Amino acid sequence: MRNSKYYSPLDLQQTTSPNRFLGMWRMTQGFRLTYLTAIAGLALAALSKTLTYLVIRKLVDEGLAKDAAIPIYYFALVFLALAAFESTFTFVAGKMAARTSEGITLRLRNYLYDHLQRLPFSYHDHAQTGELIQRATSDVDAVRRFFADQGVQLGRITLLFIINFVTLLLLNAKLALQSVIFIPLVLVISIVFFKKIEELYGAYQDQDGRLSAALQENLSGVRVVKAFARQAYEMARFENENYQKYKLGKRLLLGHALYWPVTDIICGGQMLLSFYLGARMAIAGEIT
């Protein structure tokens, strides 16, 4: 595959690995510094957000007193500065993540096109065109979405948890430990859910490929279908493939419909418990 000014050359066969995360990491070759910059931007944005809460603590404890040593407008300026830092770092992270995702998918599309051009005729004689279209469009777009959004959001959530938990641990270890009581339960539910969703999504993608293949075959062979009066058969076949996709899609959405509300309820319960325990500790004078 020819070189491009938009990405460094890479034989994508070298990225294959039984470990999917390792394979995805290998795909970032040439973009790793850019992607790490995006993650660093998210870390700084998360740190700015955490510092905002610490400034609120300082304001409530000392800034609202009549004889406060620090004028209240100083706190306002600090809030504005932290908000500006958070916005700037979030923008940088988004820009770097977009540059990484679009560069990787550009290289992947060009590689797939080049690879398909070099395959022997016997392969194309037996391969389903709809399946190839599915792999070259939906699957490539799934890779783009992972690097553009899901990967950086995973990093953002991890960094937010680490920074906030460490900060709370330094302020009050007892309250910090009480605030993560339900975390193991959420992790177990998430692992079970994502294993199930992985199976359902794979089946859904395969069925989508079969549906695309059926459509492509009928569009390219419409004269043959009409010549042999197979319209009713092909319509029934397409409707069956479409219905199978509908059933798999419904199961996939049902899994999401169950997972997110359940975890939201658990996380909401954790927040209520943390507020309750924190309020009791504040009343008892253990924290300010």
Keywords for this entry:
single chain, 288 residues, mainly alpha, ABC transporter transmembrane region fold, 2 domains, 9 helices, 83% helix, elongated
Quick description:
It is built from nine helices and no strands. The chain is mainly α and 288 residues long.
What features would you describe in this structure?
Helix 2 (32-63) packs parallel to helix 5. The protein is mostly helical and 288 residues long. The protein has two domains: 1-171, ABC transporter transmembrane region fold (Up-down Bundle); 172-288, ABC transporter transmembrane region fold (Up-down Bundle). It is elongated and about 95 Å long. Helix content is 83%, strand content 0%. The mean pLDDT is 85.
Might you state the CATH topology name of the largest domain?
ABC transporter transmembrane region fold
Any guess at the CATH architecture of the largest domain? Up-down Bundle
CATH superfamily of the largest domain: ABC transporter type 1, transmembrane domain
Number of helices: 9
**What is the CA–CA distance across the termini?**
63 Å
Low-pLDDT runs of 5+ residues are none
The number of domains is 2
Beta-strand fraction estimate:
under 5%
Number of strands: 0
Helix content: over 70%
Q: Estimate the global geometry from the Cα principal axes.
A: elongated
Give the CATH level 1 class of the largest domain. Mainly Alpha
Overall residue-averaged pLDDT value: 85
How does the helix and strand content classify structurally?
mainly alpha
**Largest sheet, if any?**
none
**Could you spell the SSE succession in H and E letters?**
HHHHHHHHH
- Spatial extent as radius of gyration: 27 Å
